[in-house]
Amino acid sequence: MSATPSIVVSAHDFERLDQLLTSLASAGQPGVAALRGELARARVVEPQDMPPDVVTMNSRARLLNESSGRMLELTLVYPKDADVAAGRVSVLAPVGSALLGLGQGQSIDWPMPGGQQERLKVLEVLFQPEAAGLHHV
User: How many whole angstroms separate alpha carbon 133 and alpha carbon 137?
Assistant: First the structure.
């Protein structure tokens, strides 16, 4: 497993995700501990200071599965908006919490069923709310 890359999270996303985690803490929801760990190591910045090549909430990114060579596009969303068939992955899914805060060119190891790992690399952030001036999406 590779070293964990540093991540950047907007103050707005941090606040909303912290509220989400607080509301789910007693529900035993899968993914809570992983997301909490990601937020604990994140550098938090104001939305207007977010680098435009970082995956934030509601961002759409082009990724490369370095294990298979397959390209994919995913949008990182809150659990209520998740739709895997449409490429909208929940921040509580293992790949979702792992993508949060990653910048273009960074890679993460994505845990798969059965204990295997796949490696995903952020090739490009196609849409980011903060870069589009949408600081409260």
Answer: 10
